[in-house]
Amino acid sequence: MAKMGFHPYLDDDIQGCIITTYMFPTDPKFDFPRLYKSLQDRGIVIYPGKLTEAECFRIGTIGRLFEADMRFLLTAFKDIMEEMGVQLPVTQLSL
Questions:
Q1: Considering the entire predicted model, what is its pTM?
Q2: Distance between CA 26 and CA 55 in Å, rounded?
Q3: What is the dihedral of CA 83, 19, 90, 81, to 10 degrees?
Q4: Are 44 and 72 in contact (CB under 8 A)?
Q5: What is the reported pLDDT for 54?
């Protein structure tokens, strides 16, 4: 995710290992519903953010996941960003 410009919302010293929150990119071409649907079409589910005043999404990393699963997610994520025309690496929204 970092290579694409996405960095976790929380600092490493308080970030858990089950779910990671990322702020939306500032690029106006970013379309979360399209990202969500495109990932879902590939068998990947991510989550809308739950922060009250921030546009973000979450990626869960719980369960029987392997390195190949994460590589599949990252490849799909990058492909979708490029399909949307989002400039990589992104600049993320801030609070």
A1: 0.90
A2: 10
A3: 0
A4: yes
A5: 82
